Amino acid sequence: MRGARYEVLPAAELARGVSLPAPVQGWDAISPLAKMDETRAITLDNLFPQPGYVEIRKGHRLHNALTPVVAPVESLMAYHALSTADDKLFAAAGTEIFDVTVTTSATIDSSVSGLANARFQHINFSTSGGNFLWIANGEDTPMFWDGAVWATASISGITPTDVVSMAAYSERIWMVLKDEISPAYLPTDSIQGTAEIFDLEGVFNKGGYLMAIGSWSRDGGQGPDDYIAFITSRGEVAIYSGDPEGNVDLAGVYEMGSPLGRRCLTKVGPDLAVVCVDGVLPLSRAINTDRAATLNATITALIQPVMNASARDWGANFGWQLTSYPRGTRAILNVPVTEGVEQVQYVMNTVTGAWCRFLGENANCWEIFQDRLFYGGNAGQVIEADCQGFDYDAPIEFNLEGAFNYCKNRGRLKDFTMCRSLLLTDGQAAVGLALNVDFSRNAAVNSLSFPSDPAALWDVAQWDAGVWPETSRIVTDWNAVEGQGFCASVRLQGTLQVGVGGSASAAAVFQVNGWDLLVVDGAFM
Predict the structure, then answer these.
(1) pTM
(2) Separation CA 337–CA 340 (nearest Å)
(3) Regarding the domain delimited by 15-53+398-521, which CATH topology (the fold level of the hierarchy) does it fall under?
(4) Contact call for residues 431 and 420 (beta carbons, < 8 A)
(5) Cis peptide leading into 68, omega within 30 of 0?
C-alpha cells in the first residue's frame, strides 16, 4: 500500500550447533590460553592423543612381587639372547638381583647378593664368545650375565668399582668412571681385561665430571659416520670418531643444559635423545643450535614450562629416564616427583609429537622386554604397563581440559546451554562434564550417565531370548551446561574402575572423539 510504514522486529534468537574437535595435538603448556589451537588441551592426564581421537591410557598389572623385599625396584635389565626363549628380565632392589622373567615368583641370585646399591646402568654386548648383559653401579665391581650365570668382570688398569655407566662403540665397552672427567675402554670384542684411559683433560672448559656416554650415527648404520659422545655434568658434549688404537678425531665440543641423572641418554633410531634441564634434545639438533635457541630444538617444546619447572624442583632426584616404546608409538619421560614415593610420566606420541601426562604409575625405572613395557615400583614390585583395560591396584583417574574456543564468533557474547561428548566406551567409566568460560577453570563437574542396555547374563538368561551385551558403543547424549561468555572450554574428568564388578578379566574402552555445543549468540546483551 502506498505510504505504508513497516517496523523491522528483531529476529528470534536461535541456538546454533558448534562442533569442537578432540585435542589430538595433545597437551599444550606453552601457548597463551586465548591463542591455543583448538586441537590442543590445557590439561590431558591419563588420556593419550592418537591421530584421530584421545583414549584412556591402558592399565597395568602386577608381574612380580619381590617378597620379602619391599625396597624400591631401581633397575630393570633385559638380556637379549639368540633365541627369545632364553631371554631374561632382571630386577635390582635393595641389595639383591632377581630373575623376574616369569610371573610366578622372583628368584634371588645368591651370587650377586649383598650389593652396595641397586642403581645399575646396563648394556647388551655381543662378542665372539656370546651375548652378555653387562651392568655397573659405581660401587660394586661390574658384572655380566652370560646366558646361564652371573659373573664378576675381571678388569685391571682402573678401579673397577668406579665404573658407573657404559656404552658400546667400535666393538668395545666404554666406561664412565665415577667423579672422573676421562672415560676408560676395554679391548675389542671383550667384556673384561685391561682397561685404558681415554684422556679428556683439557677438552672441557666448564669443569664437572663425565655423566654419560652414547654412540651416535648420522646415517643410521655402522660406518664412517659413527661417533661417540661424552656428556659432562655441566652439559658439555665432546664428539669423537674413530678408534683409540688407530686414528681418533675430535669432531667438536658443544654446550647444552646439564643432564638429569645417569640415565639421561636414550638411543632413538640412529640419534641420541638427551634429558637435560633444557628439555629433551636430539643430539643431532643440539650440536647445531645455540643454547639460547634450544627451545626450537627440543621435542618437549609444547610442555617446556612444565619441563623446566620439573627439572628445577626435582632434577636432583633419582629416576629420570626416557624410554622409547615403539609398540605403543610413544616416548615416556619418567619424572621423579618424590624419590621412591611418587613419579609421573610425560608421554609423547612418536607419530604425531603430541604430549600428555600419565598419573598412577609410580615407577623408578622402565624397561622393554620382548616388546612389552615394564616398570619397577616403589615397594618391591615389577609391573607390566600398557597391557589391559584397567589398573589392578587402583582406579584410573583421567582429566581433560580442552582449549578455549570462541565458536567462530570471537567478538560476540554467548549463552552455552547444552553439550554432548562424542565418546566410544563400554560403559565402565564414571565420567563428569563441565564447561569453563572466559578462561575461568573452576566450573563444577556434572556426572554423565551411560544407560545400560538389557544384556543377557551367562547361565541365567534364556537361550535365544536374551540380548548379548555390546563390547563398546558410541555415546552421544546431550547434557545441560551453564555458561555465559565469549569463549568456552570443555572439561571432562572421571574414573575408570578396576574391572567390571571387580573382575580382573574385564577390559574397558574410553575414547573421546569431540564435542557438540548448543550456543545462543547475544542472548543476554
Answers:
(1) 0.91
(2) 9
(3) Jelly Rolls (2.60.120)
(4) no
(5) yes
Report in angstroms the alpha-carbon separations of 214 from 178, 238, 240, 439, 461.
16, 11, 11, 45, 62
Q: Quick one: 268 exposed, middle or buried, by C-beta within 10 A (0-12, 13-18, 19+)?
A: middle
| Residue 3 half-sphere exposure toward CB, CA atoms < 13 A | 0
Q: CB–CB of 211/176 below 8 Å?
A: yes
pLDDT digits (tens, 9 = 90+) for 96-140: 999 999 987 777 877 788 999 999 999 999 999 999 999 999 999
**Three-state SS across 63-100?**
EEECCCCCCCEEEEEEECCCCHHHCEEEEEECCEEEEC
User: Scanning the structure block, which residue is given the C-alpha cell 617378597?
Assistant: 67
pLDDT at position 448, please? Answer: 63
Rounded distance between C-alpha atoms, residue 58 and residue 50, angstroms: 13
Query: Is the pLDDT at 457 greater than 50, yes or no?
Result: no
What residues have CB less than 8 Å from 525, skipping those under 6 apart? 413
Mean pLDDT value of segment 357-379: 97
